[in-house]
Design a protein that fits this description.
Elements lengths: L1 H22 L8 E4 L7 H16 L6 E4 L12 H7 L4 E5 H4 L18 H9 L1 H11 L3 E16 L14 E4 L4 H8 L3 E4 L2 H10 L4 E5 H6 L9 E17 H6 L2 H22 L9 H8 L3 E4 L2 H10 L1 H11 L1 H16 L1
Parallel strand pairs: 1-2, 1-3, 5-6, 5-7, 8-9
Antiparallel strand pairs: 3-8, 4-7, 4-8
Length: 344
């Protein structure tokens, strides 16, 4: 009888031991780090801040998210955030595809000049097959993308003169970011591009080391670029780069399925609010940010469709060069999705 009891107890112990790895949950870290390149003076920063708060509150502190703006965790080098996310040294990131494109070449799709003419086209891409395909590609690189945000249409400014036609860029020195495609775009227009971080760009504009830059109007106003010798701003809608709300695969795998869903839904909610925030003040019906730039002493020029087309024609060689690198089928799919929005 004692032998049977012993064997039964032993079998039960083995059963518990066998089940332990399945039931075990990796301990949560006391802090999860969220990195962005800007603070809450900008829609991107406010969207990240909202996401961090929602996750911390809805998990009742199990996933305690601390936000680090200014890309401070990667020495101010925003393009290093993707690598840090893959390695798990960053847990959360909200970033422009511009800064991820050097690591995921297909993301250069959104940087093709004049591919995305308006918000309707942008929405069609991020919410359709193109957006899903790009998320699948990102997911294969050890990063979990959860929601698309929007950085806004990137406009061009400078200290020298008004820009209305391609020849107006000739000889001007422009600060550009991220992907080498920007070097090709500005070189095709006769300008002299130079890549530098946002932090380095501000003193360079102030001193006149560079003549101009390109960024969404929300960032132009938030960073007070009128005071950085940027006296001419042209709204030309040449690129509208999305944001990605993402977490590291390492952090994702450490959470329970219920907590993963909380993080995902919080990302979707924060991203939706961030997109609405980005679109305030930059349209004909709501031009509050444009008026702020003008009030600060900057002349704002809004190009006509015909004027935009002149720039599109001048940069077509850049599209032709980059299409094979991005993937001809993906580019074709995106162009078809944009064309469908125009037909409606």
């Amino acid at each position: 009888m004692k032998t049977l009891l012993f064997k039964g107890a032993l079998a039960a112990a083995f059963a518990v031991a066998a089940a332990a790895p399945v039931l075990a949950q990796a301990p949560y870290k006391p802090e999860y780090r969220l990195s962005t390149n800007v603070n809450n003076a900008f829609p991107l920063g406010r969207g990240a801040e909202t996401w961090a708060k929602l996750v911390s509150e809805r998990t009742q502190g199990r996933i305690n998210v601390k936000w680090y703006p200014g890309s401070s965790l990667v020495g101010g080098e925003t393009t290093r955030e993707f690598t840090a996310l893959r390695q798990g040294t960053l847990d959360f990131n909200v970033a422009s595809v511009i800064n991820w494109a050097p690591h995921v070449k297909e993301l250069n799709l959104f940087l093709l000049p004049f591919l995305v003419p308006d918000e309707k086209a942008f929405d069609a891409l991020i919410n359709g097959e193109v957006g899903k395909e790009l998320f699948d590609l990102i997911g294969k690189r050890g990063v979990v993308p959860l929601a698309w945000g929007e950085n806004g249409s990137r406009e061009i400014s400078n200290s020298k003169h008004e820009i209305r036609k391609p020849e107006d860029l000739k000889g001007l020195k422009f600060r550009v970011v991220g992907s080498p495609i920007f070097n090709d775009i500005y070189s095709a227009l006769g300008a002299n591009p130079t890549q530098m971080t946002f932090a380095d760009a501000q003193p360079a504009l102030q001193s006149g080391a560079v003549d101009g830059q390109e960024n969404p109007i929300a960032l132009f106003v938030g960073a007070k670029m009128s005071a950085l010798n940027q006296k001419f701003l042209t709204k030309w809608n040449y690129v509208n780069d999305p944001l990605v709300f993402a977490v590291s695969q390492k952090a994702w795998d450490s959470w329970t399925p219920a907590d993963r869903e909380i993080v995902r839904q919080a990302a979707i909610e924060a991203a939706k609010a961030e997109i609405a925030d980005t679109r305030k003040g930059v349209s004909a019906g709501d031009d509050a940010l444009i008026k702020q730039a003008e009030a600060a002493g900057t002349k704002v020029t809004v190009l006509t469709p015909a004027e935009q087309q002149a720039f599109a024609a001048a940069t077509k060689p850049v599209v032709d060069k980059w299409t094979p690198q991005i993937g001809a089928e993906l580019v074709k799919k995106a162009q078809a999705a944009v064309a469908a929005t125009r037909a409606k």
